[in-house]
Amino acid sequence: MPRMSNEKAPVFSDGFVVPITGLLALLFAVMAGMTVLPALSGSPGDIALPIIFGIASLLSFRLRQRARAGKEGR
To answer: Inter-axis angle of helices 48-72 and 17-41, to 10 degrees?
Structure first.
């Protein structure tokens, strides 16, 4: 007969963070690339959008690296 434990099992596993952050990094990189040419031909204030998307892509990629390192460290 299996023993019952008072500890609660985690609802979510840690395996969903790495793929989602990888997809977000790719999405933000694609969006940054798509908005560069219209921003360069537009007003000087339009260049902020591709820069923001690029920064978001780098942050998502960094978060993905941290999640992978934390998962492998266990």
So the answer is: 160
